[in-house]
Amino acid sequence: MMIGVSAPWQLRTGSADDLDIVGPLWVAVHHQHAQTMPELSPYVSDDHTWQVRRTLYEDLLTKPGTLLLLASIDDRVIGYGLAHIMAVEETWVADTWVTGKRVGEIESLSVLPEFRGSGLGSHLLTRLEDHLRAAGVDDLVLGVLPGNRDALRLYERLGYRPTWLYLSKFTGRD
Ligand SMILES: CC(C)(COP(=O)(O)OP(=O)(O)OC[C@H]1O[C@@H](n2cnc3c(N)ncnc32)[C@H](O)[C@@H]1OP(=O)(O)O)[C@@H](O)C(=O)NCCC(=O)NCCS
């Protein structure tokens, strides 16, 4: 007989009060970006990336429907995910694809390096999707750097498909 093993982490809903804890987890995403696409260097500093991201999260957390999920082991936060809801007209989707009136965005997903590969990222993503679906939002988007192959594979396994590809030509750098 199979005996179920309970997850080694606990999940809870976060708020703007948790953003200091989230900072290092976002910086881990930034490091992943820089490591997987070094050809796009230079990247902004850790302080700068978090300053910009924090402002975005503060704004998103004032909107109805936004969910910040924190995963922890023994009171140490080791992963998080954040999802929010947009009117389709606010997105790049509206002029091209038929969808519902609202689109959910998986804004962020991060698991600290030493805890990756044990299912937490998939679990956080599924919980964010459950939240959006419960809010009546079934059309979802998320952004990923094309060089972040591990994350891309995870997203594709869960049903996401490449949809809109931005190209860049950063010639304004000193
Ligand atoms: C993407 C991420 C959230 C997945 O979390 P996770 O807990 O490792 O994910 P799961 O264990 O549920 O899923 C395993 C998948 O994650 C990726 N993965 C597994 N171990 C990994 C590791 N040590 N490092 C990076 N990715 C790993 C792989 O795609 C793996 O799929 P595979 O079995 O086909 O190799 C996590 O790797 C992470 O935080 N990466 C850095 C930040 C990032 O890229 N976030 C997404 C930005 S769009």
Features:
about 170 residues; alpha+beta; Aminopeptidase; 4 helices; 5 strands; about 20% strand
Would you kindly provide a written description of the structure presented here, covering whatever features stand out?
- With 174 residues, the chain is α+β, with helices and mostly antiparallel strands.
- The chain has helices spanning 19-36, 46-60, 120-134, 149-157, and strands at 10-13, 67-73, 76-87, 102-111, 139-142.
- The chain has a single domain (10-157), classed as Gcn5-related N-acetyltransferase (GNAT) (Aminopeptidase, 3-Layer(aba) Sandwich).
- It has a five-stranded mixed beta sheet with strand order 1-2-3-4-5.
- It is globular, with a radius of gyration of 17 Å.
- The chain starts with 9 loop residues before the first strand and ends in a 17-residue tail after the last helix.
- The mean pLDDT is 95.
- Bound molecules: coenzyme A (COA).
- Coenzyme A (COA) is lined by residues 28-29, 32, 109-111, 116-122, 144, 148, 150-151, 153-154.
- This is GNAT family N-acetyltransferase.
- Pfam families: Acetyltransf_1.
- Keywords: Acyltransferase, Transferase.
